[in-house]
Amino acid sequence: MIKKITLLFFLYFLFSCKTENPPVTVNRYAIIDSTITAFQKTLLEQQIDSVFKKYQFNGSIAVFKDSLQLYRKDNGFSDFKNKVNIDSSTVFAIGSVSKQFAAALVLLQMEQGKLNVTDKASKYLKTFQNKEYENITIHQLLNHTSGLNTFGGKLIFKSGSDFFYSNDGFNALGQIVAAVSGKSFDDNVLELFKKAGMKHSSTGAIFKGENFASAYLGTTTKAEVVPNMPERLAGKDIGTPAGGILSTIEDLHIWNNALYGGKILQPETLKQFTAKSAERRHAIFGKMGYGYGIMMNTGQPESYFHSGYIKGSPSLNIYYPQTKTSVIILSNIADEEKGKGSTFRPHVEVKKITDNLENTLLQLKAKH
């Protein structure tokens, strides 16, 4: 790693130096960019390939810089019984990565003047019209500061005073979207997919495709299929707004570019979406900021990300805005007996790799 970075510094220095009477005009910035891209591809291939090998990772991992693919690997089976290989068309359950779609839909309703994030949820949902829940706002549901855990129970803390991750809170947001739009949440999501250009995404309730990666518990040598997938994602235990969306590597790449490129939300709305309005201590990824259905690094590099997990389907979607880089990790098997910490070790390692690479590139850019 050190040797590669040293070489890159040397190349930067080489192409930054002025030569007297050059025989031809050379676009040294283009050469530098191509050198950096080659460096990124080589480093990512070496380090992420080692993650696949170390953990016998069954799934897909890809890294894109804007529209350029820097890394992509698909490994293992989407269907263990019939030995169907995972490929570029494989559709995965993405768990809580779904929450950013729900948040975007809420903000789109706000842009149309149908609600405000400062509104109380009780304005739109009768189930919030009681003394326990009457002061919960949409903003607090979006950033998990409502105090709500499981709907129907007592609040864990006074709304707005702390952070507690609530799937039921996001499912309530889905109900609000349906109430103010006059359309089901699923219909709203499909319209959002179309707006973003995502052609292979769906929800657990309405998916009719043939490329779904069945979810499994256990190991690649002893895999037990999770029943009733993907239909169960729409049930009360999960819920579509909280964790019921299905997508592909390519569609999530398209989504990242569309969302953070300003094609979904207006500039000021996007700022609200990504603004740190709460702080979360994640059991696996540590301390982080939380916006609206999205997490962010507290230090460098700047990034927006969210992990997802429903039985057998761990996922991670990362976007680095300074370089317009997406890192997407999707899988369809988890050994729950070893715990989520073990399940997400490949995801944590890949994030460390791409965080470090992002920081290195930004440091180089700052020097030149």
Key descriptive features of the protein:
single chain, 368 residues, alpha+beta, Beta-lactamase, 8-stranded antiparallel beta sheet, 3-stranded antiparallel beta sheet, 11 helices, 38% helix, 19% strand, globular
Instruction: Estimate the global geometry from the Cα principal axes.
Output: globular
Mean pLDDT: 92
Query: Termini distance?
Result: 21 Å
Structure summary, number of beta strands: 16
Q: According to CATH, what is the class? A: Alpha Beta
Q: Which topology does CATH recognise? A: Beta-lactamase
Strand proportion, as a percent range, falls in 15-25%
Structural class: alpha+beta
* Fraction of helical residues: 25-40%
Q: SSE order in H/E notation?
A: HHEEEEEHHHHEEEHEHHEEEEEEEHH
CATH superfamily heading? DD-peptidase/beta-lactamase superfamily
Question: Total number of helical segments?
Answer: 11
Rg, Å, rounded: 22 Å
The strands making up the biggest β-sheet line up spatially as 2-1-15-14-13-12-11-10
* Biggest sheet features: 8 strands, antiparallel
Structure description:
The protein has 368 residues and is of the alpha+beta class. The chain has one domain: Beta-lactamase. The protein is 38% helix and 19% strand. The protein contains eleven helices and 16 strands. Helix 1 packs antiparallel against helix 2 (28-55), helix 2 (28-55) packs antiparallel against helix 11 (345-367) and helix 3 runs parallel beside helix 5 (167-181).
Write the layout of secondary structure elements.
Elements lengths: L1 H15 L11 H28 L3 E7 L2 E8 L1 E3 L4 E2 L6 E2 L5 H13 L26 H5 L24 H15 L3 H12 L5 E2 L12 E4 L2 E4 L14 H4 L1 E3 L1 H12 L6 H8 L3 E5 L3 E5 L4 E2 L7 E7 L2 E8 L4 E7 L1 E2 L5 H4 L1 H23 L1
GO molecular function, one term: hydrolase activity
InterPro entries: AmpC-like, Beta-lactam-related, Beta-lactam/transpept-like
Keywords: Hydrolase
